[in-house]
Write a structure and sequence with these properties.
The longest helix has 17 residues, at 28-44. The chain starts with a helix and ends in a 5-residue tail after the last helix. The protein has an eight-stranded antiparallel beta sheet, covered by helices on one side. The chain is 40% helix and 24% strand. The protein is globular. It folds into two domains: 3-17 and 91-216, Beta-Lactamase; 19-87, Arc Repressor Mutant, subunit A, CATH 1.10.10. The protein is an alpha+beta fold and 217 residues long.
Length: 217
């Protein structure tokens, strides 16, 4: 995949899920809270508690802050809307995509998100997932944007583009998955070429890094 195509895909994802644009519209205190939520997932494997959030917002400001961030789809909340359950690229849901950072393992919203954690935080990660078609295990070791190893040797990312319907975690993210190899990915893409994109592993890492790194800038 060429760099120009990655740029096109990045523009498309930013139209569907403009995380950085939405983050930029927040006041400084909410931007800081959003960043802290992301770092909490990466460093502790879980979002901050209400008490930890209250330390930044004040007790009376917790729900106001959470509703604002969730309203922009920067975070996902529990059904009672009192707890953070996700912040792209992370989720507390047990999804197929697991990312290990040091001794911490956390789930990622989708395959692209899983590949984005290492470059986003400049850390070493192990990504464990499965091919969405065959169920074959996928394991990828990364250091920042550097790919250290992959099993199988050349997995791909497949994306079926769709509207987020207000929550990408329950829509678009479900259609960003691993394919064990190019042949499997090509066969899948043929069924919906107008809405389906395939990225080899290096291209997917670049794509994810360019989308997520600005959130910590």
């Amino acid at each position: 995949m060429t760099t120009a195509t990655i740029s096109d895909a990045l523009a498309r994802l930013n139209r569907l899920l403009p995380l950085k644009e939405r983050q930029n519209r927040l006041d400084p205190s909410l931007r800081a809270l959003h960043t802290e939520i992301l770092r909490s997932f990466a460093e502790r494997g879980c979002p901050p508690s209400r008490g930890q959030i209250a330390a930044q917002t004040g007790t009376d400001g917790v729900d106001i802050a959470l509703r604002r961030l969730a309203g922009d789809d920067l975070i996902v909340l529990s059904p009672d809307r009192r707890l953070v359950t996700g912040a792209y690229p992370f989720t507390v849901e047990e999804r197929a995509h697991r990312v290990t950072i040091g001794g911490v393992t956390v789930h990622a919203m989708c395959a692209l998100d899983a590949l984005s954690v290492a470059p986003m935080f400049e850390v070493r990660t192990r990504v464990n997932s499965v091919c969405h078609v065959s169920g074959a295990p996928v394991e990828i070791l990364m250091q920042g944007e550097q790919l250290l190893s992959a099993r199988p040797e050349r997995p791909c990312i497949g994306i079926r583009w769709q509207d987020t319907s207000g929550c990408a975690a329950q829509s678009l993210c479900m259609e960003m998955v691993f394919r064990a190899d190019a042949a499997t990915a090509d066969a899948w893409q043929q069924k919906d070429r107008g809405n389906a994109s395939v990225f080899d592993l290096p291209a997917a890492v670049e794509f994810g890094a360019r989308f997520f790194q600005p959130l910590l800038a």
